[in-house]
Design goal:
The chain is an alpha/beta fold and 230 residues long. The protein is 39% helix and 20% strand. The strands form two sheets. A six-stranded parallel beta sheet has the order 3-2-1-4-5-6, with helices on both faces.
């Protein structure tokens, strides 16, 4: 079946996961795609490892918050980027260094936080930031771009000199083996309690239009918007 606005749907057993007793169904509803997107980009595409310095753009959103938790669990130093105080506070609570992209000294502050070797990996939510990412990354740095394509000019001399990797990814384009790895990562994170989904707001079925308006409108992102059809 297609669509998601249903009380019941048919699923293959390998698409299901056990919801811990200390997690609500609203939190569980915000797990699947955001966690899988963060995990696939950090672990599979980004090959992030212990000790890496990781920068997460859009870090106060659903994907970004999971990315912080995943990188923390791997033993990385994490820098989270957002543009409002609520999001920056949430990033700090998750154990990352919070920096506002609105700060006129943004690049300088990221470089100071990263240290001499620079950032190893960036999870990027919008292509317009890629030229700045190239400046921030250290030698052999990687960028995974997960959204908002645009036409930007990139300093390819710097890409060559630093031997950088810039990769675009789609959450829906995963192989069975990649899904198995992602599912195992989710099961492990739930078992260990290393992730805690943040729900920003819950909508009822008669508030669907408002939910879509809130999703598309410029807003201070701080977790997931959840639609409750029960």
């Amino acid at each position: 079946m297609t669509g998601t606005y249903a009380e019941y749907f048919v699923a293959s057993p390998d698409m299901l996961f056990h919801l811990p007793e200390n997690m609500t169904f609203h939190q569980g509803a915000g797990l699947g795609t955001p966690f899988m997107t963060a995990y696939s980009n950090i672990v599979i595409h980004g090959a992030v490892k212990f000790g890496d310095i990781v920068l997460i753009n859009g870090a106060s959103g659903g994907v970004g918050l999971f990315a912080i938790e995943i990188a923390n669990a791997l033993g990385c130093k994490v820098i989270g980027v957002a543009g409002h105080e609520t999001g920056l506070s949430l990033i700090s609570q998750k154990g990352a260094i919070a920096i506002s992209y609105k700060d006129p000294d943004f690049v300088k502050k990221v470089k100071v936080a990263a240290g001499p070797k620079g950032v190893d990996f960036i999870l990027e939510t919008t292509a317009k930031n890629v030229p700045k990412d190239v400046e921030i990354l250290g030698k052999f740095g990687r960028v995974c771009l997960i959204g908002a394509p645009s036409h930007e000019t990139v300093d390819f001399d710097m890409v060559l000199m630093k031997e950088l990797t810039i990769k675009g990814t789609q959450a829906t384009s995963v192989t069975p083996e990649q899904y198995r790895i992602m599912k195992a990562g989710l099961d492990k994170a739930l078992e260990e309690g290393s992730i805690n989904p943040i729900v920003e707001k819950v909508y009822t079925i008669d508030q669907i239009a408002q939910a879509h308006n809130d999703l598309m409108a410029p807003r201070s992102t701080a977790g997931k918007l959840i639609l409750d059809l029960s």
